[in-house]
Amino acid sequence: MRHPKQAKQLVDRFGRSVDYVRISITDRCDFRCVYCMSEEMTFLPREQILSLEEIYNLAMCFSELGVTKIRITGGEPLIRRNVLDLMQKIGNLPLLEELVMTTNGSNLAEYAEQLKQAQVSRLNISLDTLDAVKFKELTRSGDLDTVLKGIRTAIATGFKRIKINAVILKNRNHDEVIDLVQFALDSGIDISFIEEMPLGVISSHNRAEAYYSSDQIREELATRFTLEKIAETTAGPSDYYQIQGTTTKVGFISPHSHNFCSTCNRVRLTAEGRLLLCLGNEHSIDLKAELRSHPGDTEHIKQVLIDAMDIKPEKHEFNLDEQPIIMRHMNSTGG
Ligand code: SAM
Ligand code: SF4
């Protein structure tokens, strides 16, 4: 039973309230997706990442300051040891309304039921292609059948909502957008298409050449499906459409072609305990240092979070033709 709403105390200089936090609980992953990581990655040593207890304490502070939604992500969250204990504890925070997760699906067949029991209500599962060979190429190590089995198990488990996330790259998987939507339709789930963001230096492709816009995808989908625009319901970067006559929604996350910053309601916590005020800027606060220099001092941490709102930037600037200004990869950012 959730308690009545907590006053929103995290408000930035532009009057935006932050009520949604994405927490990356590990920078490690069992995949090496070409748009997310370079082939050879150096991961953080263990002492540099937040312990599960530190993550829980921060989640509690956030919820007491009016955050009602927490997304657990990574790297791949389901490869962190004892992740289910953490999920259970966060799921029990009385002021939290929604606990959700983004996963690559590789461990879902095993964990879906326990995630449901931990009160995870929704899952975003990454799936960029339905072709096993391309899947191996795009993830550099993943196995399509294992992920499809994970998706089927999650559907059978009965989450409130399951959504596929697909990053579309020109000449790699752009020819699959209709098939991916058909897959979502057949499975009775939703799907979002994401434009690639220039986070961290990668060697596998030229990001400007691989750019495939949401508008192109939408035009292509319109040749097969009737998409009806859904009026904005939540402040967020996705533009949603309903496929006529079905329950399936199609979202478009377009950091390049559409700017969504004016309604931004979120911040991110990296695995090493950095609070990122904006995905496309480096403005951040070192919460790990605050936690470790003020052990047990919840009031201090809450004040740090309130003060941090003053440096939340107004908007992001991405330019695919230049070297990324953001040197961190998505796995350490927490997508
Ligand atoms: N490992 C989990 C997964 O893949 O779902 C969670 C973390 S992953 C960083 C979160 C999301 O970020 C995934 O949907 C992934 O496709 C997306 N992503 C990773 N790198 C990206 C990039 N450079 N641009 C846009 N989306 C990216
Ligand atoms: Fe891992 Fe997710 Fe990044 Fe792919 S997108 S490498 S699955 S963290």
Major β-sheet profile: 12 strands, mixed
Number of helices: 11
Q: Which molecules are bound besides the chains? A: S-adenosylmethionine, iron/sulfur cluster
Task: Give the overall form.
Answer: globular
Instruction: Output the structural class.
Output: alpha/beta
Question: What's the number of extended β-strand segments?
Answer: 12
Strands side by side in the biggest sheet: 7-8-9-6-5-4-3-2-1-10-11-12
| Share in β-strands | 15-25%
Assembly state of the chains shown: single chain
CATH-level-2 architecture: Alpha-Beta Barrel
* Overall pLDDT score: 91
Question: What's the CATH H-level homologous superfamily?
Answer: Aldolase class I
CATH class category: Alpha Beta
Low-confidence blocks of residues: none
Q: How many structural domains in the coordinates?
A: 1
Level of helix content? 25-40%
Tell me the radius of gyration. 19 Å
Query: If you consult CATH, what is the topology?
Result: TIM Barrel
Offer a few descriptive terms.
335 residues; alpha/beta; 12-stranded mixed sheet; globular; binds S-adenosylmethionine; binds iron/sulfur cluster
Write structural notes for this entry.
- The protein is α/β, with parallel strands linked by helices and 335 residues long.
- It has one domain: Aldolase class I (TIM Barrel), CATH 3.20.20.70.
- The chain is built from eleven helices and twelve strands.
- It has helices at residues 52-64, 83-91, 108-117, 132-139, 144-157, 177-187, 207-210, 214-222, 287-293, 298-308, 330-333, and strands spanning 20-24, 69-73, 98-103, 120-126, 161-167, 190-194, 227-229, 238-243, 249-253, 266-269, 274-276, 284-286.
- A twelve-stranded mixed sheet has the order 7-8-9-6-5-4-3-2-1-10-11-12.
- A hairpin with a 4-residue loop joins strand 10 (266-269) and strand 11 (274-276).
- The longest helix is centred in the middle third of the chain and has 14 residues, at 144-157.
- It is globular, with a radius of gyration of 19 Å.
- The mean pLDDT is 91.
- The structure holds S-adenosylmethionine and iron/sulfur cluster.
- The site of iron/sulfur cluster has 13 residues, from helix 11.
- Residues 29, 35-36, 73-74, 76, 102-104, 126, 165, 167, 194, 196-197, 199, 330-331, 335 line the site of S-adenosylmethionine (SAM).
